[in-house]
Amino acid sequence: MRKITPVFKVVATVLAVVIAAGLGLWLHAADRTAGDTGHWVGSHAPDRIEVNASVLKVDAAAREAVLRVLVVPLGRFGEDDGVASTGELRLLTSSSLRDDRVFPAHHRISSFDLPIALTGGAVTDYPFDGYEARIEFAAVHNGEPAPVLFTLEKVDSLFSFSVKDYRAAEDQGGLDVRFSRSTSVLVFALFMMITMWGLAIAVFFGARHLIARRKGLVWPSFGFMAATLFALAGFRNLAPGSPPIGSLLDYTAFLWAEVVIALCVVVAVVTGAITEHGKPDAG
């Protein structure tokens, strides 16, 4: 059998690191590209009201998302390149949004945060949960409807969104949107599940070795098992998005891993104590 040289080991290690880093960069680039994708709907007339919105945060537990909205009146509706409106501008929103906004004439228009209600889905389905929202805007300038161009982009790195339907009219722009966990969150959550089961299996084989070989009370091994039991709780709390207890992550990995490790610790200690009790005294 040919012996593996140290140089080959070093090259293989470096190559594995490069491949892993390259895969991570590819996943990051794919996720970022998806996040940079914008969707727009409405009128492209020279005289229009542009409504530019970005998804700042999605709070699945509160079933709410927050939009950062900037209204830009153009053409005969705006002055100073869209900084202010030439007349009173009223922004009308869909029922999923909280309220309408009124901008006085000749006053600078600043961006504002607008919460929207989410429907469908359940946060306990984490990390495969998804939610829906209908986001629509219309504008009234000096009491008359004005053409609207609505643009939506993503900022929240924990969620991605897809457009299910476009709702376009001369004086209205809207999107039916579905929010779901981003690729990075799915990858990390699956990694957590695999790690939890891996640690549980490692503790199981360790306990099996102690019991089968009648090692007795090997305290360093018990310390490792007990530390793993409590470390998993902290590891679970690192899940991106802070899912509540009782989510799919818990029922498929975390709770089972805790049960397996706890049973292994108890059985190994009890068996070790019995083994120690049966040994003859050293004296």
UniProtKB/TrEMBL annotation:
Keywords: Membrane, Transmembrane, Transmembrane helix. InterPro entries: DUF4436 (IPR027948). The chain crosses the membrane at residues 7-27, 185-205, 217-235, 255-274. This is DUF4436 family protein. It comes from Amycolatopsis speibonae.
